[in-house]
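Predict the holo structure. Ligand: adenosine-5'-diphosphate.
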Amino acid sequence: MAEPVLEVEGLVKHYPLTRGVLFRRQIGSVKAVDGVDFTLGRGETLGIVGESGCGKSTVAKLLCHLERPTAGAIRYRGEDITKLSGKALKAVRRNIQMVFQDPYTSLNPRMTVGDIVGEPYEIHPEAAPKGDRRRRVQELLDVVGLDPEYVNRYPHQFSGGQRQRIGIARGLALHPEIIVADEPVSALDVSVQAQVINLMDRLQAEFELSYVFIAHDLSIVRHISDRVAVMYLGRIVETGTDTEIYDHPTHPYTQALLSAVPVPDPDARDRRERIILSGDVPSPADIPSGCRFRTRCFKARERCALEVPALAVPAEFRYATGPAVHDSACHFAEELRVVPAEEHGNGPG
Ligand code: ADP
Ligand code: MG
């Protein structure tokens, strides 16, 4: 893997759960993020996928220092940024920028496009001399495929896709190294989603960006991700290279998510079983014992209620291309590995 730019270890964010208005008492905690580890390599895209409420936005906010973690480390180029403050923190924040989910609500309607895209220069004036900002903003608009003449227009004069381009231009203003994009296309029409993803793909190559790209659907991140992490109830349950996750998923949750993705090829569609998960996602304030997915799992056995599965596949089952290409937090991952028919007989041993 490429040189790591971001290493996340044991990341936890618990929010206090309180009752009462006059006498606020803490009655528990919402375990929004409950022990997340991953590494982002330079120039790489890590896709983070999971259902609504599984903690994706909380991870994004922690990475961009919009929230402080309850525990854990976020190392940027080897330095734990959760420990930084003041000038040192500000310098790091320049390099990790966020693109928000909803371009309809994340752009101030009373600001011009020029002011929105140039806003980061108000916070980091050292990044661009005042006299140079307008020219830079126009260049940024051009880079994201918008007419530089639009600087004086307002957000309502743009379509959803164009607004997200404005959000991306703002994210690029400080020349960051890492972009954390929190469901950047979820609010857009399907026809526009691919355009914005293609734009982000092109920008990544042009500016050597590393992406954390969040989505609630595995199909959205497929083309842009080098590696994918699937989250469930505040944890990563499976992670691996894109081919491992899409072609050989070993966690029942990933298999269920993939079975819900539309397949264009009718033959493939017939061969594939649709997995319907039972029940609802449990509350992050009341996480099941053992494997947190067991209450909805079609493979759950006794052991699953007793033992928390580690996010790792035993070495003897790691057959793809080397170590750490694929980890799955399931006690029975090895039994569940899906091998496409044409590959049978080519496995290890
Ligand atoms: P996602 O982005 O995957 O939909 P979030 O990270 O937004 O998930 O939320 C994860 C869980 O944490 C949810 O149950 C949500 O209600 C809870 N949560 C998020 N922010 C807060 C907060 N500020 N206070 C209390 N609970 C929160
Ligand atoms: Mg979210």
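The pocket of magnesium ion (ligand 2) is lined by residues 56-57, 182-183 (CB under 6 Å). The first helix runs from residue 56 to 63.
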